[in-house]
Design a protein that fits this description.
It is built from eleven helices and 13 strands. With about 375 residues, it is α+β, with helices and mostly antiparallel strands. The protein folds into two domains: about 5-195 and about 370-375, Ribosomal Protein S5, domain 2, CATH 3.30.230; about 200-365, GHMP kinase, C-terminal domain (Alpha-Beta Plaits). The strands form three sheets. Strands 5-4-6-3-1-13 form a six-stranded mixed sheet, sandwiched between helices. The mean pLDDT is about 95.
Length: about 375
C-alpha cells in the first residue's frame, strides 16, 4: 500500500492544507473464476497492494481529483448527471452518484490518490479505487451503509458508468478483506465465511504476463451473455442453479461453445467446494491440483486464456509448482501460483528467463500478502 505520509505532503502541495487518509486493497482469487456473475461461489482475499487517498470536504458541490501516480487531474460537479468522459475518473464519479442515490448526503471534496496495484494484472485496481472512495464518502458524510452495501455501490459503478457487467467478488473482497484469511463468498446470497490462510511451507505468488487486458468492450460481457442464455434454456435464474443433469438435457439446443462455457461454470463450483474441504484438512497439494483443473477449463472451455498465460501455467507444472492458473477476467494479466517455499526462487528465476526468450518481454513476479479491507488510516 502507498505510504499515506507521502500522499499527505502531495495533497498539501496540490490543494493546500490537510485531508484524511483512506485505503482499500486489490484482491487475489484463489479459485472460483467467472462464477460470481453466475450466482456461484468464489474464494478471494484482499492483498497488501491497493489505493490510498487523502480526502477533504471542500464545502462546495464540486469534486476536485488528482491521480498522483498518473499525473492527471479532473473536476466535476456532483449534480452533473453526465460527469467526466475519462474512464479513470468515471470510477470516482460513479461512486459519488451511487452514494447519493443510496441516501448519503455527499458534498464536494478534494482528493489526491495513488495506487500500487499493477494495472492490467487482474488484481482489481478499479474495485480498490471504488471501495476506497465509497468507504471515504460514507465516513466523511455521515453515511450508514454497511460494507456489503458499499461493495454493491462499486459494482453498480462498473455496470452503469464504465460498462463492465462484473459480479460482486472484486468489490466484496476489497471491502471485507481480513489479514491472514481468505473468504468463501456465496455471490447469490451474499453470505460468506472466513478461512484462515497461513499455509506452512507454501507461498502464493503472482506472475504478471505484462500483457494488458481491457474488459471494457471485450469478450467478457459476451461470456456473461452466453451463460445467461444457457440458464434461460435450463429454466433457472443463473447457472448456479443448473445441475449437470439439466445441462445434459438441453445440450442438443446449445452451440458447442455455449455448452463448454456452461460446463466450465458448473465444474468450477465443484472445485471451489473441493478446495474448502482441502483447506479444512490442510491439504495444500489438493488445493493446487484444483487450481490446475481450473486453468484447463478457463483455457479450453471458457476460452479466456492466451498463449502467455498458458505458457506460465505449463511451465509452473513442469517446474514442480503445486498449483497454478490464470487469475481474473482473462486475455492477459496474472497467473496465481501456490508454490513450496523451497522451490519458489528456482521457479521464478527459470520462468522469467524462458518467458523472456519466448515472448521478448519480461514477466513480473508479485509477492502476495493477504491483508485488510477498506479502512480509514
Amino acid at each position: 500500500m502507498i505510504n499515506p505520509d507521502s500522499l499527505r505532503q502531495l495533497f498539501a502541495d496540490h490543494f493546500g492544507g490537510e485531508g484524511i487518509a483512506f485505503a482499500a486493497p486489490g484482491r487475489i482469487n484463489l479459485i472460483g473464476e467467472h462464477t460470481d456473475y453466475n450466482g456461484g461461489f468464489v474464494f478471494p482475499g484482499a492483498v497488501g497492494q491497493g489505493i490510498t487517498a487523502i480526502v477533504r470536504p471542500n464545502g462546495s458541490r464540486d469534486v476536485n481529483l488528482h491521480a498522483a501516480d498518473l499525473g492527471r487531474s479532473c473536476s466535476f460537479c456532483i449534480d452533473d448527471a453526465q460527469g467526466p468522459q475519462a474512464v479513470d475518473f468515471r470510477y470516482v464519479f460513479g461512486v459519488v452518484r451511487e452514494m447519493m442515490a443510496a441516501g448519503v448526503l455527499v458534498e464536494g471534496f478534494d482528493a489526491l490518490y495513488a495506487g500500487d496495484v499493477p494495472l492490467g494484472a487482474g488484481m482489481s485496481s478499479s474495485a480498490a479505487l471504488e471501495s476506497c472512495f465509497a468507504f471515504a464518502l460514507n465516513d466523511l458524510f455521515g453515511g450508514k451503509l454497511d460494507r456489503m452495501q458499499m461493495a454493491r455501490i462499486g459494482q453498480a459503478t462498473e455496470h452503469r458508468y464504465v460498462g463492465v457487467k462484473c459480479g460482486i467478488m472484486d468489490q466484496f473482497a476489497s471491502m471485507h478483506g481480513r489479514r491472514g484469511s481468505l473468504m468463501r463468498l456465496d455471490c447469490r446470497s451474499g453470505e460468506f465465511q472466513y478461512y484462515p490462510w497461513q499455509p506452512d511451507g507454501y507461498s502464493l505468488v503472482l506472475v504478471n504476463t505484462c500483457v494488458k487486458h481491457q474488459l471494457v468492450g471485450s469478450p467478457y460481457n459476451e461470456r456473461r451473455a452466453s451463460c445467461e442464455h444457457v440458464a434461460a434454456l435450463a429454466g433457472v435464474e443463473t447457472l448456479r442453479d443448473c445441475t449437470w443433469q439439466q445441462l445434459d438435457a438441453i445440450r442438443p439446443k446449445l452451440t458447442e461453445q455455449d455448452y463448454r462455457r456452461a460446463r466450465f461454470v458448473l465444474g468450477e463450483t465443484d472445485r471451489v467446494m473441493a478446495v474448502c474441504n482441502a483447506l479444512e484438512n490442510a491439504d495444500y497439494e489438493s488445493v493446487g491440483h484444483q487450481m490446475y483443473l481450473t486453468h484447463e477449463g478457463l483455457s479450453h472451455d471458457y476460452d479466456v486464456s492466451c498463449p502467455e498465460l498458458d505458457f506460465l501455467v505449463d511451465e509452473a507444472r513442469r517446474l514442480g509448482v503445486s498449483g497454478a492458473r490464470m487469475m481474473g477476467g482473462g486475455f492477459g494479466g496474472c497467473t496465481i501460483n501456490l508454490v513450496r517455499n523451497d522451490r519458489r526462487d528456482t521457479f521464478l528465476a527459470r520462468v522469467r528467463d524462458t518467458y523472456r526468450r519466448l515472448f521478448s518481454i519480461d514477466c513480473q513476479p508479485i509477492a502476495v500478502e493477504i491483508g485488510d479491507g477498506a479502512r480509514r488510516l
